[in-house]
């Protein structure tokens, strides 16, 4: 009869980690002043609001059209600019295509900083610099997009096949031309598909960026929310839902085309 | 030995005709039209951009030359509240989504439960977190706790989806073994399935926490408290040197959390460095 294998003695570690996680959770629960009682009381008062939210006011639809259009326009414009600016920066941010180590380090750290700030924070500051409206929202989206495009595309560049690049450099091509001829075609599908992904993110982001004054549906959300018009809020949310789902379907269809 | 290889034919073989790329051309054309159309139709006064670089430099100067370091303690306290909101929200999301994602997994949950659950996850994913927050806040009022609640509910969509995807991708061997040993469904899930997916699940919980740190800053902007609220207040009163400090604190804390969480995730997935 074989003996039973010795039980690995790591169980206490799992318990220790669990205890730490639990302690942090309790600390955060106290920090945010968890109050279930107030929640339940408010829920009782809010039943009417909840019912209103299930009944969209469809007659409000024509009033939302300009804001909806602006949301989509902002998303498209920001995606286009973000992708156009992000592509060359991605080549600067990869060791494969950029021979200068300091330049790679600088580009990457600037992009890390740019990515660390959420899009709505950018928007809330830009609103005071360039004024309320679609322009501040679009600039905020562009900043957010450049950060994402550079991260995703430069990671793709890091893992390309270096053979063509070495061949191109061996013919005496400059780095820019070698990158263009030997690396760009390899990352083009990734670039296109990440751009579509950025567009999806943008449609989501541009619907809410107006909450801080950045234009689009968000401005409308802010208005109806201030006046407690839940039927209209419900319609706007429905529109966001439809816009996001339609776009996701279109973009996954396009992505399949790209791959094949 | 007079046989000589035939000289290469001088008439070149015809070049293969280019593959038809009408589909690609049409898509490219459509994209160009959409982009140009958006630029052309949008109500943006692009001439406003002329003064933008100079303005931006001026405001950056106001913010960072120098930032108001006396605001650091307050900014740090506000950031801690935001991070607490993010953590507690993530825990709420995990507690709700974990059982649901088991039920949404092929081969575990019944089909009449699986399909609606997946639809529910997709629905939550489609709505931006801030909108979920606006909804919840409109019902329960603006506090850090309701902010955490909004983050938690907003996390259910992605956590649920990643959960059932991880479980469907799990190795079948241990599950079959547990079942063959006579385990009940709960035992099969606990000892056959759960251990094989734990690393992946822990990794995406951490990743969601990173996302939620950003989301909690945003929720503050609409009034849930924390760093976002402090930023909104300072921007409103144009106390730019405090805004600069706040941005620095946000960036430092976010980058540190990302680095720590990323290192932890790599360790969980790939094991300790050998």
Question: SSE layout and pairings?
Answer:
The complex is a heterodimer of chains A (260) and B (274).
Chain A (H helix, E strand, L loop, with lengths): L10 H21 L4 H10 L1 H7 L7 H32 L8 H16 L2 H12 L3 H25 L4 H8 L4 H34 L8 H10 L3 H30 L1
Helix pairs in contact in A: 3-11, 4-7, 4-9, 4-10, 5-7, 6-7, 7-9, 8-9, 9-11, 10-11
Chain B lengths: L21 H20 L10 H13 L7 H32 L7 H16 L2 H12 L3 H25 L3 H9 L4 H40 L2 H10 L3 H31 L4
Task: Provide a quick synopsis of the model.
The complex is a heterodimer of chains A (260) and B (274). Chain A is mostly helical.
Main sheet characteristics of chain A: none
The name of the CATH architecture of chain B is Orthogonal Bundle
Largest sheet of chain B, described in full? none
Q: How many domains make up the coordinates of chain A?
A: 2
Biggest chain pair contact, residues each? A-B, 65 and 64 residues
Share of residues in helices of chain B: over 70%
């Amino acid at each position: 009869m074989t003996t039973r294998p010795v039980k690995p003695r790591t169980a206490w570690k799992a318990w220790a980690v669990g205890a730490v996680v639990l302690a942090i959770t309790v600390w955060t629960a106290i920090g945010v002043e968890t109050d279930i009682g107030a929640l339940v009381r408010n829920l009782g008062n809010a039943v009417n609001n909840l019912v209103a939210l299930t009944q969209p006011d469809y007659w409000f639809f024509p009033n939302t059209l300009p804001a909806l259009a602006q949301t989509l326009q902002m998303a498209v414009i920001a995606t286009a600019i973000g992708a156009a600016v992000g592509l060359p920066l991605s080549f600067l941010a990869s060791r494969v295509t950029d021979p200068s180590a300091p330049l790679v380090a600088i580009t990457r750290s600037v992009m890390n900083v740019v990515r660390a700030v959420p899009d709505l924070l950018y928007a809330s500051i830009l609103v005071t610099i360039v004024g309320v409206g679609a322009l501040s929202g679009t600039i905020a989206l562009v900043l957010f997009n450049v950060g994402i495009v550079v991260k995703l595309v430069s990671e793709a560049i890091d893992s390309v096949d270096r053979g063509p690049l070495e061949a191109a450099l061996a013919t005496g091509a400059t780095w820019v031309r070698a990158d263009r001829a030997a690396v760009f075609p390899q990352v083009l599908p990734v670039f296109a598909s990440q751009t579509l992904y950025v567009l999806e993110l943008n449609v989501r982001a541009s619907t809410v960026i107006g909450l801080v004054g950045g234009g689009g549906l968000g401005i409308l959300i802010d208005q109806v929310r201030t006046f407690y018009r839940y039927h209209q809020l419900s319609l706007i949310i429905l529109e966001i839902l439809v816009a996001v789902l339609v776009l996701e379907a279109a973009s996954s269809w396009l992505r399949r085309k790209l791959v094949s | 030995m007079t046989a000589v290889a035939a000289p290469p034919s001088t008439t070149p073989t015809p070049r293969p005709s280019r593959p038809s790329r009408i589909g690609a051309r049409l898509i490219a054309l459509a994209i160009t039209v959409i982009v140009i159309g958006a630029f052309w139709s949008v109500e943006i006064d692009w001439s406003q951009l002329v003064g933008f670089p100079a303005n931006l430099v001026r405001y950056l100067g106001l913010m960072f030359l120098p930032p108001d370091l006396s605001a650091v303690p307050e900014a740090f306290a506000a950031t801690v509240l935001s991070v607490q909101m993010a953590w507690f929200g993530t825990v709420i999301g995990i507690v709700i989504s974990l059982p649901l994602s088991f039920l949404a997994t092929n081969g575990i949950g019944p089909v009449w439960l699986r399909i609606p659950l997946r639809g529910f996850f997709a629905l939550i994913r489609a709505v931006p977190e801030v909108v979920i927050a606006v909804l919840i806040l409109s019902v329960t009022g603006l506090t850090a706790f309701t902010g955490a609640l909004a983050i938690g509910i907003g996390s259910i969509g992605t956590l649920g989806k990643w959960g059932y995807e991880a479980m469907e991708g799990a190795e079948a061997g241990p599950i079959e073994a547990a079942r063959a040993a006579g385990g009940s469904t709960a035992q099969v899930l606990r000892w056959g399935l759960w251990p094989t997916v734990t690393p992946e699940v822990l990794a995406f919980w951490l990743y969601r926490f990173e996302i939620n740190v950003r989301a909690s800053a945003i929720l503050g902007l609409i009034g849930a408290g924390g760093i976002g609220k402090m930023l909104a207040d300072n921007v409103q009163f144009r106390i730019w040197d405090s805004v600069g400090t706040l941005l620095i604190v946000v960036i430092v804390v976010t980058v540190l959390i990302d680095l720590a969480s990323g290192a932890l995730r790599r360790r969980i997935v790939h094991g300790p460095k050998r």
